[in-house]
Design goal:
The structure is a homodimer. Chain A contains eleven helices and no strands. Chain A is mainly α and about 280 residues long. The longest helix of chain A has about 30 residues. At the A-B interface, α2, α3, α4, α6 and α7 of A face α2, α3, α4, α6 and α7 of B.
């Protein structure tokens, strides 16, 4: 009786303290011994703690709340942090550990395509990390499903008019654009052109905050579907990209990836205007 | 007396169990009550655990061991996982917690530019995450130093003949190439062209394993310098990229980033060979 009371899952909390004291009265001496013995045998919580294997426990999450949470966290830590927090924050509240143990602020590194280098969109980077944490694992079949979900998200991002999430309150009206790329550089450039604003404007920052909401909501949609067993990849690469890949990624096998080819290879002008 | 014995850091371990039993004999009833009361009031070790604030503790690491560890882990979980493991693995051994609590397998998501989409090189993605964990934080001055280290690493990667690390034992001789990009897509394509092999060849996989070693070693070099207070950004963007940025990133402010512009904007042929 004594050991379960001190076990790692804690005491049954529905029992009142008065009831417990009554119940344990007869077992008090034994409980005292057992508690001391366990305290000696067990290393501290800090050194003993190891993360559970992937995937971490998941239960269906409200996608709109996730989107709003992602938006709310954007100005505190950037796009990767905000999107990961939007996707995982509700689970930290409802499930608790192991989500309580994750150093979410590490993901500030992904801001503006990683440390402002404008490579991979931070919202996608954070969402991909969260998907792997909650649907992936070291087994090949887990990796396969998580990778399929991530690729589904990336293709949706490339082809969809975004941001398609609007927060409860916002400083601006935000126009939509199609990124045609999962890269921060192209995503921001194309949006700024559509919105006719500069990249360091408050409107652009607000657009990226909305975009974190869009990506978090779409990620939760995929994770909820996966939890129900109903996730099926549906996104289709552009016809042009499929054509390029049929030679380069398969027959010639001289390149890798599934980004839209035309975003870099065909759209830039062959000559620059006079400097 | 009773509460410290059951505290989250565990019992003073230098005291023998027999001594403890003697010492606690007179306090047994009290201890029994206190233990029960604490079990009710305090969540389990698992739910109580929260990660410490960034940056996590760091002490100088052997860069060659880090590189070898990154290489050794490549085939187990891909490039992002391997590089992060190479950079942080020694600290898990020497410092223990909080490194023992981190779910490193989550970083399998970054394989081949995230789920094989060939966006950001996974070695760079994993290294950037590790740098932020060990040198970054929510304070602006911490973010600034971590971002400077990450950008230093990215520019080094773009401009250096890699891989420049050779593991203790390898199946192949691996040639070097310059990526001219932090993206998996360009990095692999350029290397395969130089090595005259296909992207799904075992030689290409081995090249990426060596590359993880190179990136882990360079990352540790930066982190060791930072720990000594001697880190200074030294990498310089290419002259061409500086010229582009002087208008587009500053004056016009119509794009973002620091990737080599020519990698996408000028090198592709204007016309495709006949299909």
């Amino acid at each position: 009786m004594a050991l379960p009371m001190m076990g790692p899952q804690g005491l049954r909390m529905e029992t009142s303290r008065r009831d417990l004291v009554k119940q344990t009265g007869a077992l008090m001496i034994g409980a005292g011994f057992a508690a001391v013995a366990q305290a000696v045998a067990q290393p501290s919580a800090a050194t003993a703690q190891k993360p559970p294997a992937l995937p971490w426990p998941f239960q269906p999450v409200d996608p709109v709340k996730a989107a709003q949470a992602a938006y709310d966290h954007y100005y505190a830590g950037g796009c990767m942090f905000a999107t990961f927090e939007g996707v995982t924050g509700q689970l930290r509240e409802t499930i608790g550990y192991p989500y309580t143990s994750f150093p979410t602020y590490m993901l500030m590194y992904g801001e503006a395509g990683v440390a402002d280098t404008a490579t991979l969109c931070g919202a996608l980077n954070g969402a991909a990390a969260a998907i792997y944490l909650m649907a992936g694992g070291i087994r090949p079949e887990r990796k396969e499903i998580a990778f399929a979900m991530i690729r589904e998200l990336f293709t949706w991002y490339e082809q969809t008019e975004l941001p398609d999430f609007e927060p409860e309150v916002s400083m601006f009206d935000i126009v939509k654009s199609v990124a045609h790329s999962p890269l921060c550089h192209a995503s921001i450039t194309n949006w700024c052109k559509a919105a006719k604003v500069k990249t360091h404007s408050p409107e652009r920052a607000e657009r990226c905050a909305w975009l974190c909401g869009s990506v978090a909501r779409q990620t939760i949609k995929l994770l909820n579907e996966n939890a129900k067993g109903s996730f099926k990849p549906a996104a289709v690469l552009s016809t042009e990209t499929q054509t390029c890949r049929s030679c380069h990624n398969i027959e010639l096998d001289n390149t890798r990836g599934s980004m839209e080819c035309g975003s870099c290879h065909f759209t830039p002008p062959a000559t620059h205007s006079k400097l």
